[in-house]
Automatic annotation (TrEMBL), chain A:
Lineage of producing organism: Bacteria, Pseudomonadati, Pseudomonadota, Alphaproteobacteria, Hyphomicrobiales
GO biological process: peptide transport; transmembrane transport
The keyword Ion transport belongs to this UniProt entry's keyword annotation: no
Family: Belongs to the ABC transporter superfamily.
Name of the protein in its database record: ABC transporter ATP-binding protein
Organism the protein comes from: Siculibacillus lacustris
Subcellular localization(s) per the UniProt record: Cell inner membrane
UniProtKB/TrEMBL annotation, chain B:
Protein name per UniProt: ABC transporter permease
One GO CC annotation: plasma membrane
Lineage top rank: taxon: Bacteria
Gene3D superfamilies: MetI-like
Signal peptide: none
Species of the source: Siculibacillus lacustris
SUPFAM superfamilies, per the entry: MetI-like
Claim: Iron-sulfur is one of the keywords in the record: no
Organism lineage: Bacteria, Pseudomonadati, Pseudomonadota, Alphaproteobacteria, Hyphomicrobiales
């Protein structure tokens, strides 16, 4: 089959409460090709995780994905899909890995039991076959003596090993898309790199597409083919990773890059984006980044249009010069 | 695991010894058994003979070891009031308490935990609010009052169920049981219900708060993201995660109810241990009191031990090290 594996159009997720409506994901659109890795970056609270949860239909009450949104997985519309059908896709065609492996695995169930539950959710299989399949997945993520480890409990693994187990669970049913929500953030730097390489290899072997969520541009630059930068629930800039990171067009992307330790000059203070991320309940009209932006003027009081040039796109009234770097 | 069990067993034995000594000394401090055993106008010779017969002239520690030896062989002496061996007396009463308590606690747990889990899973549903309302009632209304109301409504007013007694019993392993006959079950229903309400309330609360907390955890999010059905998430993940406090309360309640079902047993004239001990305290029936206290300590220790072992089974972190 050709065409993108995932096509997201105008994904919007709102929390309605008595206190008012908060839009945590606002008109997010992107496509993901088979085997492609899309990095989703942005500060804390920018809606990266919510985007992930919205895609797999797991937004907590009272949050809701607007019915005008469209998420097509392999040509099949997911928005508005009945829960039993959505459930059948979760963990089989599209799965998710979370940030903290200390929290995601059930401490009182053995690894084999937890993996068995995930297999049984999608396939009828004998216990022996399940064990074989689970052990295969563990072996694939680099856990030695996988079969013996099926009887082990999460506390018998180190943090990095636990994240491998979580990844093994995510790839158990060979999904077409994996949403990896900061899967390395909670780990030691050296282990981060291992996990990163491991996931990348798995995705390549299976042709699995991946959405790599991170607030760390450095990590994203090593895994992602393309990046999308989120701010206050919106994608403000997207494009091929090297192009976006070397020649950012949106001042927010520029700010994120400048605050990377590796980019600052030694001995100098790191550049910080002034101000703090806005409260989603009280966004300024127009460009949400304007209050923190050195280039903002009166024009920014109106929502900037989406500019698409070739593979790149941005939403800014005053995009930075292409040749700045 | 074996080391863990052994260690707990040793602890249990030590606690049991300490308890028996306390019971022995404590009971010696209340009342003078001689006054109960011998009529005040008995001759000095009879007094001396009786004292010697019961070994009451020996030093306290010798009496204690004699007592310990007899207890270990299951001999608690003869009841002053009933004139029969205490062991036999207790064996006729213990099954009544046992079946009543177990019915009440298992009932409260098997009904309370699922209802509490539902209330935690769907806190805004009307049904959940009704369940929580019931649990508040179970907590705040005193047991004796509910017992009287139950008798008044179901026995006196409606005449559906008997107001007291054990009803027909069947002999099994040489002791009489009510739960094996229909009539016995009818007699047991009201007192068991009465006894279970507080425990039901507790189980509902525990299950509800545990479920609420667990539902928003990453474990549940991750399980859902892997496509597990809500039923599987609740029955396999959540239930296991909330099991430990539930088992704890189950054990505590089981022990304390076995020992102190007095109020309910009295209201429903249920011939159990609680009733027996109250009677023997008023009558200063020392052998019965001693036996009761020893048996109750034993039951507490045995139940605590089982709860500890259940923890180890429920939480692998307690029984296995890192590998
Ligand atoms: N139940 C809720 N009601 C209202 N707002 C919510 C709710 N849950 C999350 N939000 C808001 O959604 C926004 C996006 O959260 P999200 O978790 O997607 O951020 P993120 O980009 O993943 O941040 P982080 O890097 O910290 O993980 C946050 O501002 C948060 O306050
Ligand atoms: Mg997040």
């Amino acid at each position: 089959m050709t065409g993108p594996i995932l096509r997201v159009r105008d994904l919007t997720t709102r929390f309605r409460s008595r206190a008012g409506t908060v839009t945590v994901v606002d008109g997010v659109s992107f496509t993901l090709d088979r085997g492609e890795v899309l990095g989703l970056v942005g500060e804390s609270g920018s809606g990266k995780s919510m985007t992930g949860f919205s895609l797999i239909g797991l937004v907590d009450e009272p949050g809701r994905v607007e019915p005008t949104a469209s998420v097509e997985l392999d040509g099949r519309e997911l928005v508005g899909l009945a829960e039993p059908e959505m459930r059948a896709l979760r963990g089989r065609r599209i799965s998710m890995v979370f940030q903290d492996p200390m929290m995601t695995l059930n401490p009182v169930l053995s690894i084999g039991d937890q993996m068995g539950l995930v297999i049984a959710a999608h396939h009828r299989m004998s216990r022996a076959d399940m064990a074989t399949r689970a052990a295969e997945a563990l072996t694939r993520v680099g856990i030695p003596e996988a079969r013996a480890r099926l009887d082990a409990y999460p506390h018998q693994f180190s943090g990095g090993m636990r994240q491998r187990v979580a990844i093994a669970i995510a790839i158990l049913n060979h999904p077409a898309v994996i949403i990896a929500d900061e899967p390395t953030t909670a780990l030691d730097v050296s282990i981060q790199a291992q996990i990163l390489v491991e996931l990348q290899r798995l995705a390549r072997e299976d042709g699995t597409a991946m959405i790599w969520i991170s607030h760390d541009l450095a990590t994203v630059s090593t895994v992602a083919d393309r990046v999308a930068v989120m701010y206050a629930g919106r994608i403000v800039e997207h494009g091929p990773t090297t192009a976006v990171l070397s020649r950012p067009r949106h001042p927010y992307t520029r700010g994120l890059l400048d605050s990377l330790p590796s980019r600052g000059e030694p001995g100098h203070d790191l550049a910080q984006i002034p101000g703090a991320p806005p409260s989603l309940a009280a966004l300024p009209p127009g460009c949400a980044f304007a209050p923190r932006c050195g280039h903002a003027d009166a024009a920014c009081g109106v929502a900037p249009p989406a500019t698409e040039v070739g593979p790149r796109g941005w939403r800014c009234h005053h995009p930075l010069e292409e040749a700045r770097r | 695991m074996a080391g863990f069990v052994l260690q707990r067993l040793m602890q249990a034995v030590v606690v049991m010894l300490v308890m028996s000594a306390l019971v022995f000394v404590g009971v010696y401090a209340i009342g003078n058994p001689i006054d109960v055993l011998i009529s005040p106008d008995a001759t000095q010779d009879i007094r001396a003979a009786t004292i010697a017969r019961y070994g009451l002239d020996l030093p306290l520690w010798e009496q204690y070891f004699a007592f310990l030896g007899r207890v270990l062989s299951g001999d608690f002496g003869t009841s002053f009031v009933y004139g029969i061996p205490v062991t036999q007396l207790i064996l006729t009463r213990l099954p009544a308490t046992l079946e009543l308590t177990l019915t009440a606690i298992f009932g409260a747990t098997l009904v309370g935990v699922p209802l509490g889990m539902y209330a935690g899973y769907r806190p805004d549903r009307i049904f959940s609010r009704v369940v929580m309302g019931l649990s508040i009632l179970g907590f705040s209304v005193p047991t004796f009052w509910i017992g009287l109301v139950l008798i008044f409504v179901f026995a006196v007013d409606l005449g559906w169920l008997p107001a007291g007694g054990r009803g027909e019993t069947v002999s099994l392993f040489g002791v009489e049981w009510s739960f094996l006959t229909l009539d016995g079950l009818r007699h047991m229903l009201l007192p068991a219900l009465n006894l279970s309400l507080f425990k039901f309330a507790m189980m509902v609360r525990l299950a509800r708060s545990g479920t609420r907390e667990t539902m928003s955890s990453d474990v549940v999010k991750f399980a859902r993201a892997a496509g597990l059905s809500e039923w599987t998430v609740l029955s396999r993940h959540v239930l296991r995660l909330i099991a430990i406090p539930i088992v704890t309360v189950f054990g505590l309640e089981l022990a304390s109810t076995l020992a102190f079902a007095v109020v309910t047993e009295t209201i429903f004239s249920w011939p159990g241990l609680g009733k027996l001990v109250i009677e023997s305290i008023t009558a200063l029936d020392r052998p019965v009191m001693v036996a009761y206290l020893v048996i109750v300590s034993f039951v507490f220790i045995a139940i605590n031990l089982s709860v500890d072992l259940a923890y180890a089974a429920l939480d692998p972190r307690l029984s296995k090290g890192r590998s």
